Amino acid sequence: MSGETRTGTTRDVFVTGGTGYIGRRVTAALLERGHRVRALVRPASQLRLPLGCMSVVGDALDASTFARHVAGCDTFLQLVGTPHPAPSRAAEFERVDLVSARESCRAANAAHIAHFIYLSVAQCASVMRAYVDVRRRGEALVHEFVANGTGRSATFVRPWYVLGPGHRWPYALLPLYWLMEAIPSTRERARQLGLVTIAQMVRTLVSCVEQPPTGEHTIAVPEIRKA
Question: pLDDT tens digits for 61-84?
Fold first, then answer.
């Protein structure tokens, strides 16, 4: 259970999506800071986890395959998502993103998790509506998880597009963002849909683990950029 390390309170974290683009970097950062991490993986992905991470082989779409391994953790970090989301992948958002959120909430509820962190998406976009809708419904599942227990909390992290290795093409859009931020009528929309870096995302998620809120807290792009 929780103790004290050089980073303060040690967290016992269960991660889904721990071998993904963001997940493998966050997992490594949490371990580096002294936290204990268990990551849900498919059999073929175990070797992708950083040294020191406990692997839990299971199916993110079926809580019965991993729920018992969540026991003893205080934090649940939900990072499962369709890679490279696009409007044509709406069915996959329903099948993977939403179902995994539902199953994670089931497992977290059974394990009496104190803090649930959900990687969502900016809610003010007029594009990618199917993706935004599924993430909004995922947030609703987490709201329900918090309401069904005593002393539970949740953090919703809402980036739009994360820049990093292999994810650099949106740099070409920066002049457009600068223009939108300069115009009062589009300034707030540009800020909420701004680009963030993978380093900012990792720092944000680590901070979420280390500083759970009282109740629920939402972190949007402007706050992620300050990380």
Answer: 999 999 999 999 999 999 999 887
Across the range 159-186, mean pLDDT stands at 65
pLDDT of the residue at 85: 81
Confidence of residue 46 (pLDDT cuts 50, 70, 90): confident
Higher pLDDT, 76 or 164: 76
Other beta carbons within 10 Å of 167: 15
Could you tell me the maximum CA-CA distance found in the chain, to the nearest angstrom? 52
d(CA 41, CA 52) in angstroms, rounded, equals 15
SS3 per-residue string spanning the chain: CCCEECCEECCEEEEECCCCCCHHHHHHHHHHCCCEEEEEECHHHHHHCCCCCEEEECCCCCHHHCHHHCCCCCEEEECCCCCCCCHHHHHHHHHHHHHHHHHHHHHHHHCCCCEEEEECCCCCCCCCHHHHHHHHHHHHHHHHHHHCCCCCEEEEEECCEEEECCECHHHHHHHHHHHHHHCHHHHHHHHHCCEEEHHHHHHHHHHHHHCCCCCEEEEEHHHHHCC
- In this model, does residue 189 exceed pLDDT 70? no
CATH of 4-160+197-221, one of 3.40.50.720, 3.40.228.10, 3.40.190.150, 3.20.20.220: 3.40.50.720
Q: So where are the chain's domains?
A: 4-160+197-221
